[in-house]
Amino acid sequence: MKKYIKIDNKIKFTIGVLLIFISLILPFFLKVETFKILDKTYDSIIYKNDFLLINAATCLVILNSLRALPHYLGAFFIGESLSTEKNIKILKYIKIFTICLIIPTIYFLIYVIHHIKYHLGIPALTLIFIIGFLGSKSYNYVSNFKKIILIILVIFTIQILDIMPILSKFPIGKGEISQEIKLVSHFLELDNFINICATYIFILLFTLELLLLSLINSENNLKYMNLLREQNLMIKNKSQLQELENRNYLESRHLVHDLNSPLAAAQALVSLVKLNCTSDDRKNDYIYLDEVENSLDSMSKMISQTLYIDKTSIISINEIVHKISSNISIYDYYDKIIILDNCPNKFIKINSVFFVRSIINLLENANYAIKDTENGKVKIVIDSIEKDKSNYIRFKIIDNGVGIEKSNLDLIWKSGYTTKNTTGLGLPFVKNTIESNSGSIVVNSCPNIGTVFTIFLMEVNNYEK
């Protein structure tokens, strides 16, 4: 049974938990005494120094913001790490609920541990709502750095409200230190000055937040649209490649059918002529015609296997090696190929035409990889192994060429992917052929060292030709 809610991003969840832990121990280090806020407040009365009170108010905003940062950011990251497989629409409400649950819980734990009571007034509730709102949005295509900057700005902006005397009538700034500062502000007749300065800073920061939020939203939408465009392009290219493959396949079928007719006629003629070569004086002719008939039968099988990829037959490894050698003997890289057949008398059941073509594709790729390598060589190593309590024939195509980057290893099997001026259909054809013959293929590569393609095919046991 699948879980309704799960942690989709373990890194974000871990960061969130770590930040919450930091928020619980931070009051040990960040205290009112650390910034000498009360000393500055009382000194402002004694010396009637307006600057000391403004300094104390500023320090209080900074202190409250620094204390709030870890648990609000932690709650945000935990919310972002969650996902659900059943109902995507309800996910945003799950995130909001999670954030709204975490922050009051942290307030309670801080009170229990440090006996510091954070006032859950309008600023705190506003912050919870804003962080919950941001957490419910799927800004998955924007860097975490920009989201963190936005949250920091929001926290500082909201904390400014705590020191504004004009808001004293509301449940804002009801903390003990905030009330002390506002009381002294009234005594020093600084209410208007603090209100004006705080309002100006609030508007400035709020404007920056709106601009940053707009930028984040636009960037997220733009990157999402680009991703959709790339996906649509990939689907379109895949469809075009599939259409091309289907057209080539249909043309091949027509061609094969056309070849079958004269081939059948040739087989019939050879059989007819053989009937007239039974006398002793035409014994050699009979032998030659027999060879021709065998060649025609072999060609007929090849044509049949070319027409149907799932048309298989049992063949020895020795015959496969012979077919591979015959096909590559016309190429200039033939001298660079080393074939080590350790099980010539073993048998496999495959479509030999497509399989040999697949091996040649791998050899051509290997030859391309070693073209700029000094003493470049390609080995085909064939042996019999036991795997999962079954007998397999293993083909290894090994080169000491340029290798493949780790990030590209999964891409090489995709239709259209290529690093050369080709169609990018070679390796997908190889994989499809091997898997159609109930086999498997894996690749291991190291840049500037070489590449190994390994093919596993089930061995046919106890077969006698």
From TrEMBL:
Q: What is its EC number?
A: 2.7.13.3
- What span is annotated as the signal peptide, if there is one? none
Keywords linked to the UniProt accession: ATP-binding, Cell membrane, Kinase, Membrane, Nucleotide-binding, Phosphoprotein, Transferase, Transmembrane, Transmembrane helix, Two-component regulatory system
Q: Where is the Histidine kinase domain?
A: 254-461
According to its UniProt record, this protein's enzyme class is: transferase
Pfam families to which the protein is assigned, alphabetical: HATPase_c
Q: Which GO terms describe its cellular component?
A: plasma membrane
Kindly provide the name given to this protein in its UniProt entry: histidine kinase
Source species taxonomy:
Bacteria, Bacillati, Bacillota, Tissierellia, Tissierellales
